[in-house]
Amino acid sequence: MTLPNGLTPDAAREIAARAYELDRAHVFHSWSAQKSLNPMVITAAQGCYVWDGEGNRLLDFSSQMVNTNIGHQHPKVVAAIQEQAATLCTIGPAFVNDARSEAARLIAERTPGELNRIFFTNGGADAVEHAVRMARLHTGRYKVLARYRSYHGGTETAVNLTGDPRRWPNDHGNAGVVHFFGPFLYRSQFHASTEAEETERALQHLEQTIVFEGPSTIAAIILESIPGTAGIMVPPPGYLAGVRELCDRYGIVFIADEVMSGFGRTGKWFAIEHAGEVVPDLLTFAKGVNSGYVPLGGVAIAPHIAATFDDRPYPGGLTYSGHPLATAAAVATINAMRDERIVENAAEIGERVIGPTLCDMAGRHPSIGEVRGAGVFWAVELVLDRATREPLAPYGGSSPAMTETVAAAKAAGLLLFVNFNRLHVVPPCTISEAEAKEGLAILDQALTIADGHTV
């Protein structure tokens, strides 16, 4: 028996042991206290599965960082990277290359409205950085409004825009960012009891924030079309359209952050499509654009923003902007998603399998406060008490109950995406019905551990 990469289990364990030794000696990990860290080794991956350092196969319900939208080692994308490497490994961003040009065309064809100009970055965080820079230069204003319960990246501006605890150590109050409350009916800040009330009151709160901060000082409002790491809170009907209207009324640039929710994750090419005809001024993307096979991100730009820089140089760039290997991977990924109907598969699996099964679990597990999502983008909100909605882990932290639940799932062969008191069900968009049912059955069993901590 061999792993998908041809290694025998013994060879894989030997490689894993050496990799772990070198990692702990030399690698500095993100978002972690280094001394107590015990990272899992991955020795192989294929489709919706990964293999750990002991040769155990796990169903990847995390899509790693919610980015392997077409699964691991998709042969068409691997072949495209190999072919591009043999032709042209790298070239500076000032020079035209066919991989970048074709990737830009394919992305522009799928973005809403006339977001037809593409600025390529190395990932999601710097896509957000450049979108904000464009908005500030376009408007001549500085402030940016972002919601609490959000994540926009780990670089300086992006992490200050972020509305979760990772911002706190990096926030010195001088980034020009103002936070506001977005709609989240399950934990409403507006004492709403219906989606319509939540939409109306959230928009009233946002407009009041704009007025109190001074519309003439605000360059942009940035929103994840569907917040990801913060909890997959699908905006109630009318909310994003209302934000668009407020931006138009006050001359504010609307930035849609689609870094996690884009490229099929919600069952549409971009999550903002769920809101109807809403078109942002700028749209950031990364992750699913090429399933993370080679780092890539970017900003899709509306004509009126792009025109700002027709005769005025845009003061920004990156050495690896539109890197040939990354954009070749994007071309192959987008074409594979189209040809294999991967976006449609995500929508169908979510509607027919994941959504109904999670709702059934919610009826049987007292630890589930709410399930919510779309496509292959779902959150299971775990609580200690359904009546009070007290979370199973505190905001910004974890708990023994969460640790035990996640460990039980992993021991049974399921890799989950976890944040605070939530388990996120975010498998690749390519997942089959049988694989989805396999993972959900493991999750169902693991939730009995969480149930044991409820009151």
Task: Give a structural overview.
The protein has 455 residues and is an alpha/beta fold. Helices cover 38% and strands 16% of the residues. The strands form 3 sheets. A 7-stranded mixed beta sheet has the order 4-10-9-8-7-5-6, with helices on both faces. Strands 11, 12, 13, 15 and 16 form a 5-stranded antiparallel beta sheet that branches. The radius of gyration is 22 Å and the shape is globular. The termini are far apart.
Strand order of the largest sheet: 4-10-9-8-7-5-6
Main beta-sheet strand count, sense and barrel state = 7 strands, mixed
- The helix/strand class is alpha/beta
Query: How much is the average pLDDT?
Result: 97
Radius of gyration from the alpha-carbon trace, in angstroms: 22 Å
The poorly predicted ranges are none
Morphology: globular
Q: What share of the residues does DSSP label as strand, in percent?
A: 15-25%
Run of helices and strands: HEEEHHHEHEHEHEHEEEHHHEEEHEEEH
Overall strand count = 16
Level of helix content?
25-40%
Distance between the ends: 46 Å
The tally of helices reads 13
